[in-house]
Amino acid sequence: MDPRHLQLLVTREMPFGKYKGRLLADLPGHYLGWFAREGFPKGELGQLLALMYELDHNALRHLLDPLRR
Q: Could you give the number of structural domains in the chain?
């Protein structure tokens, strides 16, 4: 894992879909779970969503709190 990805989770917005414009770190768990079942997008966005899914699934969202501005 690239530590820079953690910072991207609290600064990058979802570029499409129902939650377009919401920070990746603020996406609901059920939405992340849907991606986990159906497949994450290719590229960096998919990597970030997969990382956010793991944080959410393992109840580690609080690790992102110090990175928020």
A: 1
pLDDT digits (tens, 9 = 90+) for 48-57: 999 999 999 9
Residue recorded with tokens 């109840």: 59
Tell me how far apart the alpha carbons of residues 30 and 8 are, in angstroms, rounded to a whole number. Answer: 21
Provide, for the chain, the percentages of residues in helix, strand and coil under a 3-state DSSP scheme, each rounded to the nearest 5. Answer: 60, 5, 40
Do residues 52 and 2 lie in contact, with contact meaning Cβ atoms separated by under 8 Å?
no
Taking all residues of the chain, what is their mean pLDDT, rounded to a whole number? Answer: 95
| Domain range for 59 | 4-67
For residue 59, how many other CB atoms are within 10 A of its CB? 9
Residues in the chain: 69
On whether the pTM is more than 0.90, the answer is: yes
